[in-house]
Amino acid sequence: MAGSSFFAELRRRKVIQSAAIYFAVAWGVVEVTVTVVEQLFLPQWVSTVAVIAFVMGFPVAMFLAWTFDLTSEGLERTPVSSRRGKATIGGALLLLTAGTAGLFFLIRPGLESNVEQARAVSVLPNSIAVLPFENTGSDPADAYLGDGLSDELRDQLGQVPGLRVAARSSSVAARQQGLAAQAASEKLGVASLVEGSMRRQGSRLRISVQLIEGRTGLALWSQTFERSPAELVKVQEEIVRAVAAQVLPEGDYELGRPATRDASAHEKMLLARYYEQRVRNRETVDQDLLVQAVELYREASEADPESALAHARLGAALLFLGDLDGAEAPIFRALALDPGLSEVQNTVGLYYWARGLPEAGPAFERAVALNSNNVDALHNYAEWHWFQYDRGGLPELLERAVALDPLSLSRHAALGEYYGKEGQVDKVQAIIRSVRELFDGVESYRLIGRLQELMGNVDEAIAWTLRARDAEPDNPDHRGRLAELYALLGDFETTLALEPEPSLGLLFLMRRYQQLIDLAELQMIEYPDDISVRYLLAFAYHAAGNHPAAIRILSTTGQPDIVLNNTTRTVSDHLGFFTLIDALAAAGEKETARMLALAVDGFHTGYNTSWWYHFHVGCMDALLGRTEGSLDRFALIKDSPELPWEPLLRDFYCVQRLTDDPPYQDVLRHTEERRQVLRERLPATLAAHNVVP
Hints:
By secondary structure, this protein is of the alpha/beta class. Strands 3, 4, 5, 6, 7 and 8 form a 6-stranded mixed beta sheet that branches. The protein starts with a helix and ends with a helix.
């Protein structure tokens, strides 16, 4: 029969055997490719290309298996002994080709669907970005007008319900990168863009603005205005009204008010904001430029004393300058004028937080509720949650901040820090892929290094920090960061080679407490307001056995009230709190230590896999006599991706009574084995990155 003849021919030519070998090899190669893509954070299309290549190569491989035999004398053509055999060859080729084509067309809709689904998720309807307006005039000093107008448009559009507006920093980044409309739309995740130009011509301003559809790059609306500078506020309102009508044609909403309708105050605020943004965009603060911004905001608030935003921005600039006392009056004047403005509430929250007051959280919450596009309020509210041991809604806040501000490295850093502390390695890896795709430069290298550290890959962290150092060799911060990473690995020789005069943090990691005490005592005189110096000094005294000195120093930091009143602002606040409890127990003040340790049960509920959480809860359990629960908690430290700090594991008073318990010894042994593996792996990792220490 023809069917039996065909299958007999398949067996004779070993086609079925070849197909099995082909699929086995293809499966193995694809699995390896997927793993390599995930570990090296390569683009996902690499895996897709590998799959398609094997699908397309299948008929070729089967044709070769049918046509040729591998013999002891080499590759020989398989003889065809009959006319039926020739017909069978043709039929088999047709079947193979048709089958492969069918498979390709079967998976193609799925691939296209995934692409379309990704686009649908990343670019939301009713979303918009306002790019900085270009200064087309002859005087570069007029740049503040275009920048200021785009900022004010962004603020007003952000107050429109139902409209999602990309954040300032990402909009500025898109303009600086020179992205075309379609590329800017894709990277910012918005459906449309507002862009324009401004030119001063004598006593007139010529403003050209257009609304562009991101998908096509076509203009949906455009208009040119020729007005005097005094009419700039009216132009701003006309643009907001026109854009909102185009994006939300069926919307029933009330447009947000401009910061001021006074022409003099408006121009001063534009220039002040321009100066302030220049200061905030730099690593080092330009005090003189910031003072100029403060004075301009002050003049604007005097020109329009009823402008809540003029007062709020003056207060925010003074906070940034460090003048808390000076910031108080304008901030609360703004609150009295208009408590319904998100920017005002966010500034109030910053003031409360700087003062260490618990009202900061409700103010940030109110700011987010008033304007879901206020990315600074989202970030601040999330950070406030972080330091209150309250994880409720925190990742959603950070995710929203990244969605609104996708080209801001700091937003990705905050989200990565959260997921890293929570031990969610898959999500940290996804953030690293996004960072590598969107950014390239020293700061992104340092961030990737930090995220690798949170995943426990200290060797990778060193490699990425070396890349940052090589790109910016004159920056001493890279050397200090490398020294810290080597100290985490227990390689103190390299640490001291990098930093012969180690910082307080390095002395802490190396457990050189007497040196730390000597240096910190001097720094307390030089930097009396640096609370972190006091915390490290207190820990060193406590670890060295001088518990009363540790308690005395911690009493000058506001502990334990800072934590108990939910006003913590830094990780150092938490370290100081637990050091105080441990030192009180070691000094014999058992009842006070017990009361504070019991308080931990009430608020320490938000973490899950962080070694920091497991250690401190286990420590409190040990002080409270819950030995079995304490050992169970310490055992969970082994599951944390991040490498624990040796000083805490070995030198806290609460663990001294557990040093002979096998479960606790197992934790110490496991941690040291991890360090040893990382030290041995480091040379190969550096070679793979083509960097040298």
